[in-house]
Amino acid sequence: MTAGSRAASDEVTNPGLPLPQGVAERFLKAGSVRFRYLQGGAATGLPLVLLHGWPTWAEVWLPVARVLGVRHPWIAPDLPCQNRSSLLPGNERTLTAYRRAVEAFIDALGLPRLAVVGNSMGGSLAIMLALDRPDRVAKLVVLDAAGLTPKLPGRTARMYLPFLLPCFVRPPGPKSVRKLLIKAVFHDPRFANDAWVNAIVAAWKPRDRRRAFMATGFGLRRRDASVSLDLERIRVPTLVLSGRQDVQFPWQSAEAASRLVPGARFAAIEDAGHFPMVEKPQETAQLISEFLEATSGG
Fold first, then answer.
1. Cβ pair 118, 277 in contact under 8 A
2. CA–CA separation, 225 and 210 (whole Å)
3. What is the pLDDT of residues 160-191, one digit of tens each?
4. Domain residue spans in the chain?
5. Would you call 211 helix, strand, or coil by DSSP?
6. How far, in Å, CA of 226 to CA of 121, rounded?
7. How far apart are the C-alpha atoms of 44 and 67, rounded to whole Å?
8. Which of 271, 266, 280, 273 is nearest to 247 (CA)?
9. pLDDT tens across 50-109, in order?
10. What's the CATH architecture for 3-293?
11. What are the C-alpha distances in Å from 257 to residues 130, 238, 260, 297?
């Protein structure tokens, strides 16, 4: 582990710890969902909306937001059904339901223009937002996005099934959580630390939350979770990032998807798995910052 990685691993990226100075926790009712979100950064500049992946929380963005916030105000919500945001109404846990909820959140914020940054499932939702609100989304950044291929890769499904299936009977314990983080999420196993393991164990204990997590996970295999056929319709400047060691969605598929988006840029982040904003926040933030400050989207 490099010195930079050691520093990053000491930063807050999971809930339950004091927030850094200058970061506020807020709540906002949008549609039928009560969103919890974090807010910080500069007083002026293009606002950033940061969308995390399944099944995590807004705090994963804090190390990157600390850098980007020098020039940009930012907002990072907990997605519905996750951490301290409320459940989606009813029993629908499809990407279509999340898509509607995120649009309602953006509308409730009332931001006339914004850049959206999303990781994993949050990357899918970021793309959907750029498609649905092209008049408001000025720039789009996705990191290790789900949904870039027509179907969820079989290898990815096989990684999660041994974790998910026992959850029909009981919540996951520390051993299974740590195994999943090391196998599917982090390139450097030291990031699968006790703080991350304990936060996930706690999040999956309530039965209603566990059911929502499971339904969402299986929902990622549905047809509406793919944006592969919509990539050519994206009309906003786009940056596609991928951890070079992401075993869920290999960087080659992300690069191929980027070639379908008009004028998109692509970059791979070395020594990073599925969450480069956690493992390599400085490198991730630099790539995003350079893209945001560019005057053209080419």
1. no
2. 20
3. 999 999 999 999 999 999 999 999 999 999 99
4. 3-293
5. helix
6. 10
7. 15
8. 273
9. 999 999 999 999 999 999 999 999 999 999 999 999 999 999 999 999 999 999 999 999
10. 3-Layer(aba) Sandwich (3.40)
11. 16, 11, 5, 17
